[in-house]
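Sequence in, structure out.
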Amino acid sequence: MKGVISVMPNRKLELHTTRSWDFTGLSRSKVSSSLQGDVIIGLIDTGAWPESESFNDKNMGSPPAKWKGTCQGDGNFTCNNKLIGARWYNSDKIFDEKDFKSPRDSIGHGSHTASTAAGREVPGTSYFGLANGTARGGVPFARIAIYKVCWLTGCSAADILAAFDDAIADGVDIISVSLGAGGPIEYFEDPIAIGSFHAMKKGILTSNSAGNSGPFPLTVANYAPWSLTVAASTIDRKFVANAVLGNGLIFDGIVINSFDLHGASFPLIWGGDAANFSAGSDQGISKYCFPESMNSLLIAGKIVFCEAFLDGSGIMLANGVGTIMTDYEIPTDVAFNFPLPVTVISREDGQKVLDYIKTSEYPIATIQYGETWDDSMAPSVVSFSSRGPSPISPDILKPDITAPGVDILAAWSPVSPPSGAELDTRSVNYNIISGTSMSCPHVSGAAAYIKAAHPDWSPAAIKSALMTTATILDPRKHEDREFAYGSGHINPDKALNPGLVYDACAADYINFLCKQGYNATTLSYITGDNSSSCSGVTPGRGWDLNYPSFSVPVEDGQKINAVFTRTVTNVGSANSTYSLTIYTLSSISITVEPASLSFSAVGEKKNFIVTVTGDPIMQQQIESGAIVWTDDAQHVVRSPLVIFNYIPDLLSEDSVPEKKPTFKGANMFHKNRFIRRN
């Protein structure tokens, strides 16, 4: 067909599923509301709940003149001067009975991400009293445009591409995409990589979630170098609920428990003592508390000790009061909410609970209403956040950056159960959930914040500003170092004035792809035209792409030998001189020429070359250093440099190790939870 560049399978992709902005340092905006109002964030997600207070347009004027979009309400959705546009896509024409055939959000995920990026300030917000305070996005006066591509049945590649095309034509400035493929795919087969390339050509930065398949290596998603890949980390708040036994023992668990039993104690039973024999269950099955495996005659009115981390449906179906859960692998850095009173304790504490049940004639327990504790160890990259290196292009360090993605309070769809369990009949306007889906819109909001202050900056310049000013994380808490957190934790205010930026344009990324072995045909699948060519480009390393970080993958037994060319653009003081500091191991040589960069004008560019050498290495874990440029105006422009061993044949779709589930349980939470979506 005329105008068709390529045809690809219509894949199904998955969604990657407020103290957080204060934690990033963005307590008070340095960018005026009028400048924020000139920026439009497009969110490709599950839609939005337009009546949410997070999307009210009080004191907001008309959308900027550049806006060319529409509000495809279909009688079920109304836009305003905050939520200025909405479209929906379903090329498969497959709908669940709970889906709205409109941009309205029936899942909650899209409302959550949109309000995290740019929601209005809403005081007195909480989740049943937990996390009480003011909910807000990073740029409360920025405009929001919704592109609904995800349904209860998944997210279609064709719909994602169509949404990108519309968002670009509509005039958005930033695109936020909290979804991704289930495994590595080549750029020319990836609708997000293709769509974000088209956006980049039009001056639009795409912020992507890194995925929720951590802590296993080579699991990072959305690794295209022209987009911004975001890991998830904790904030200085965690949710805890105590289990109190009749013998006085108290066990705390990481969980969001919004149910108040008012201190009342209930009979306590082990799931293994309540098997539903009529349904074919036995002690070995019922101890895990699977749905329909429990004897409701024995469970009703009791708290149940369960040896599996499930969603609590089995106990609800059997009319239990609540459950104390344990498992061999339980989350210790992220909390979940449940449809009944629950706490989740360690295996060691679980054995003490079981011992009490077996030695007490009338065991009793209660589960206390949730508490909020300070987390002095934050920020730390959460265990579920997908790790690098990039499975496709190891010469580019991924993820790029990390941001708050754990226990985030934001807007929700009131028709979606807050715990994700189908038996949960509660309705909420705000919910607490976790995932790189939650960290991604934090960076989208931060990017919009920079775009408002610097409307003429390119996508690469905004990305560079965020990366080179990021807060350094403690490698002693992260054995996988930059493969977990990239350049570090976002610091939006510092990113407003980075001093220098590493800029890049479409031609630079095309040159990179040519060096990766692309030809005119495969290149056209990404660029969307037939004019690009790899003529005269020899396949090789991707080290001359002007990227704000440095990655040195070394084959086992080979010497370390890498040469990078870089160009920085002065966006700080007109007359400035930057001096160099290199952080590295004594066994590795890093030289930079020149060692000083002097500028006489804003916009002036300077080149430098980085050479990394060292003895042969084998079975080497990631080692990291940094190249830092500083001037007298207190600009600190930091770029991480990583060195690691790899086997090239392993960096392919067929040989990447199978991703293991983070938690046990075949149906752990509804599929809109972060285990299924980013």
